Predict the structure.
Amino acid sequence: MIRELNVSKITETVKSLCIEANENLGQDVLDGFQQALKNESSPVGREILEQLLENARIAREEKVPICQDTGLAVIFLEIGQEVHLTGGDLKEALNEGVRQGYGEGYLRKSSCHPFTRANTGDNTPAVIYIDIVPGDRVKLWVVPKGGGSENMSRLFMLPPSAGLAGIKEKVIQTVQEAGPNPCPPTIIGVGIGGTFEQAALQAKKALLRPLGSENPDPELDRIERELLESINRLGIGPQGLGGRTTSLSVHVRLLPCHIASLPLAVNVQCHASRHKEVIL
Amino acid sequence: MSETVNLTTPLSDEMVTSLRIGDKVFLSGVIYSARDAAHKRLIDLLDQGRPLPFDVQGQVIYYVGPSPAKPGRVIGAAGPTTSYRMDPYAPRLMELGLKGMIGKGKRASTVKEAMIKYKALYLGATGGAGALIARAIKAVEIIAYEELGPEAVRRMVVEDFPLVVINDTFGGDLYEEGVKAYRQEPILSM
C-alpha cells in the first residue's frame, strides 16, 4: 500500500527542527555534562562545565542559539520504499526548510563559496543524505554541524597491517592534535572500513547515537570505552585548559572494506552536539 | 597564583604586562569583532597603504561571527571562533598596536612571539557558550564590511566579559601548562 506524503510537510518539519536543534540541547548531552561534573577534578574544568549547563539553560529559556555557529545544516533522511512523495522536488523542499528555519529562527548563515568566500545568504545548500528503507515512514534528522570541530576531523587510509592498534593510535592522535580547538569536551565519531567516503559518512552517522547508549556490538562497545578512557588521560580537559573530561563519548561504526585497505575517519563533534529527529 | 582582574579598553602596555597565564579577566569597554574574511580585508588595506576602518592602537579584537539579533535584542549568540585561522594576520595588527585578541584554541609560534615583541595578550572565551557570552555585550554597531554578514566588523560595547589569559607577554601558554597536571599515559590493550 503506497502512502502519500506531501513534501511541504517535510519543509515545515526541517524548518522547526533547525530552530529546535539550535536552541534546545539534547537531554543526553546535558546528562553528559552532569556526569562529567562528577568526575572532573580540575577547578577550571568544573567551572567550564557549569558555564555550559548555564549556557544551555539560557538558550532554551530565551530561545537564542546555544552557539553562534549554527552550522551547516546536515540532513539525514530514511525514506520508506512505500512512501510516495508528492507536491514537488524533495531536495528543494529540504533546502526550503533550511532557508526558512535559518531565516525565521535568526540562525547564522555559514555557507559560502570556497574561493570567493561569498556567503550563499540562506545557509543552503543543505548537506543531504538519503537512504531508502523498508516501510511507509520517513525518518528525518537535522544535524547542525559547526566548522570548528569539523576542521579538526581527519581521514586516514591505513594499511591493513596497522590493525586495531593503528586505528586506536590515529583516533587518539586526532584528539591530541586538535587540543582546545574543537571546543572540548567533544564527542568522537569513528568510522572504520568501507571506502574513502563511506568511512567519513559512518563517522558522522556515529554522532547521532545518544550519549550514554551502548554500542549494540559488544566488541565495538569495548573499543569505545577503551578509546574514551585513553582520550581522557590526555589531560586536555574542558576547553583545553586541563582536566579529565576531554571527550564525553566515543561512538564507533564499522563496515567491511577492501582487502587492500583500512579506511578510518574521525569526525570530531564539539560539546554543542545538536541533532533532532522525527518520524513522519 | 592566578588572579581576577577587571580591565577596561583601551589597554596599555602596563596593563597587559601585569597579567599572566591563568589570570581571569572581566573585560569592559569597546572591542571590535573580526574573523576570517574581515582579517583578510584589513591586511589587504595595509598592503595597499590605506587606513583601516578603525584604529587598532590599544584595542582588542574579538574573533566572533555572531548569529543575528532577534527583535529587541542587541545580538544573537556570540561565542568565540577558533583563532588559528587569524594567525597569518595577527602579528601585523600587533605591530600596529593591537593589545588583545579574544578567541579559543591554539596560536602559532609566530603569533606568540609577536605577543612578546609587541606586548599583547591572547584571551580565551568559552567556546560554545554563545548564549551566555551574549549577555556581556551591551551595544553593537557594524562599522565595516556589512556585506560579509556574520563576518562584518562590529564595534561592541562589553561589560564584564569573562575571559582567561591563555598567552601572556612572557611566552606563557595556558593550554600547555594547564594540561600538564592532568596528563596520564594512555592505557591501550591492543
